[in-house]
Design a protein that fits this description.
This protein has 505 residues and is an alpha/beta fold. It has three domains: 235 residues, Ribonuclease Z/Hydroxyacylglutathione hydrolase-like (Metallo-beta-lactamase, Chain A, 4-Layer Sandwich), CATH 3.60.15.10; 107 residues, Oxidized Rhodanese, domain 1 (3-Layer(aba) Sandwich); 123 residues, Oxidized Rhodanese, domain 1 (3-Layer(aba) Sandwich). A hairpin with a 4-residue loop joins β2 and β3. α3 crosses α5 and α7 packs across α11.
């Protein structure tokens, strides 16, 4: 929590899985929530504990990467939902005008319309009781290290990404870069988000720092240069983004209501029957190493402790029914995190987990895993050993094992024909998270002659006998974005989604 003065506080509620920052601002008995996640309890609990009434719920734009809980929070508190100009929600909301002032205690929030990322994109400028500009909540207009991508709403806005980028240039120069350099920047996302290309790991900064380091705020940058640099190298947006935008425009259930309907335990026999009858996909959210030991045949592994929500959103059809295998006691967490990205068709979970499944003598499958040292031995014995690098192209270009073939998880379906299916595939990613997803997808298609390399490239580059190429600084690989962005699964396309649809049909 940041104390701006004794009566004014700002708390950033940061969710690492989505690399998203929500904000809870309080002043003299009143509070404002900015860009809340779908579950309402964190905000209600804070308000109750601090003796505050939530006065407004502010949205910077219609989010694409997560589902907001603004409707449920408004119903629970009576606080109006506020959007900036051009917003068109299907529920009751206050559409503020540019420059409108909202009071919270003795402090105030100014509505600053900054179109470009989307046409309704709005920042919120915080002034203390003396009227001083102390902070600005920039949503997806300005990040630390980058700006919001202008390609997500081009079709809906009947504009090209270049036209939207030009509008964003104007917004930044006229509305943000003119603020006091000392002002605190509170962005909507940090590194790992698919809403930008080169986001910083830092989640709070100053305008002065951004003016000095953010490529998009360069003082001598022309409008044409900005358009080119901001649109250059944009990865394909995750397939779930349009669904989330649509959900955020509607009056939908809160996360707590979704949880109440989905938190149903099924014993092993009922679970198996449910999967067959409903055409459900079995999503196993345990860690890669545990999944490898024993899992339900045909299940897909996306571990809850990694970039869970972005990968689910990138790989699984948005209308897919799901049955869950979780670590005991984490079922509600998984359901809640799925709801954050709009996956509400969870039928239930396996009661007792994989142990209960095995206790009923039901079939299981495994993934063979070897160390990087063992990989070195195998490569020494067979220089033609089949090695597949599941990382993104940018990670591969930065440094790689020359004997490996780069077919990223994102491109798995599109480049499936390039896989060396006639050989035993040794699969690695950066650390082991994506490679197990990769292996589970292949095994669900009946491809079992594969091996997962424990520790991924991090272990490979430290292992004698595995000579990697020279490292190329990621800053020179602008088209690929940051490593964190790469690991978030931002480029997975419709091909893999179609693949999953075929799996369960």
């Amino acid at each position: 929590m940041t104390a701006l003065n004794p009566a004014l506080n700002v708390e950033q509620i940061y969710t690492g899985c989505l690399a998203q920052g929500a904000y809870f601002i309080s002043c003299q008995g009143e509070a404002i929530v900015i860009d809340p996640l779908r579950e309402t309890r964190p905000y209600l609990d804070r308000a109750e504990a601090m003796g505050l009434s939530i006065k407004y719920i502010l949205e910077t734009h219609f989010h694409a990467d997560f589902v907001s809980g603004h409707v449920a929070l408004s119903k629970a508190t009576g606080a109006p939902i506020v959007f900036g100009p051009n917003a068109n929600p299907e529920f009751e909301a206050h559409i503020a005008h540019d420059g409108e002032i909202l009071k919270v205690g003795t402090a105030s929030i100014e509505v600053v319309h900054t179109p470009g990322h989307t046409m309704e994109s709005t920042c919120y400028l915080l002034r203390n009781e003396a009227g001083e500009k102390v902070a600005v909540f920039t949503g997806d207009t300005l990040f630390l290290g980058d700006v919001g991508r202008p390609d997500l709403v081009q079709k809906a806005a009947s504009m090209t990404q270049e036209e939207l980028a030009g509008i964003l240039f104007d917004s930044l120069r006229a509305k943000i870069m003119t603020l006091p350099p000392s002002i605190t920047i509170y962005p909507g996302h940090g590194a790992g988000s698919a809403c930008g290309k080169n986001l910083s790991k830092e989640t709070v900064g100053t305008l002065e720092e951004q003016l000095a380091t953010n490529y998009a705020l360069r003082a001598d940058m022309t409008r044409e240069e900005f358009i080119h640099e901001v649109t250059d190298g944009l990865a394909e947006a995750p397939a779930y983004f349009p669904m989330n935008v649509a959900m955020n425009k509607k009056s939908i259930l809160g996360a707590e209501e979704v949880l109440a309907g989905a938190s149903k335990a099924f014993d092993s026999i009922a679970f198996k029957a449910m999967v067959g009858e409903m055409g459900a996909l079995v999503l196993d959210t345990r860690s890669p190493e545990v999944f490898a030991t024993n899992h339900i045949p045909g299940s897909i592994n996306i571990g809850i402790d990694g970039q869970f929500a972005p990968w689910v959103g990138s790989l699984i059809p948005t209308d897919q029914t799901l049955m869950l295998v979780c670590e005991n006691g984490r079922e509600d967490e998984v359901i809640t995190r799925l709801s954050r990205v709009g996956y509400d068709r969870v039928l239930g979970y396996l009661e007792g987990g994989i142990d209960a499944w095995m206790a009923n003598s039901l079939e299981t499958d495994q993934v063979l895993r070897i160390t990087a040292a063992e990989l070195a031995k195998r490569l020494a014995a067979n220089p033609d050993l089949s090695i597949v690098d599941a990382r993104k192209e940018g990670e591969w270009t930065a440094q790689n094992l020359p004997q490996a073939k780069n077919i990223a998880l994102d491109d798995l379906n599109a480049k499936f024909s390039e896989l060396p299916l006639e050989q035993t595939m040794h699969i690695h990613c950066a650390g082991g998270y994506r490679s197990m997803i990769y292996a589970s997808v292949l095994k669900s298609r009946g491809i079992h002659d594969l091996v997962d390399v424990v520790g991924g490239f991090a272990a490979i580059k430290e292992t004698p006998g595995l000579e990697t190429g020279a490292f190329v600084c990621p800053s020179t690989l602008k088209k690929q974005g940051s490593e964190e962005f790469a690991q978030a699964g931002s480029g997975a396309g419709q091909g893999i989604i179609a693949w999953f649809k075929n799996l369960i049909s």
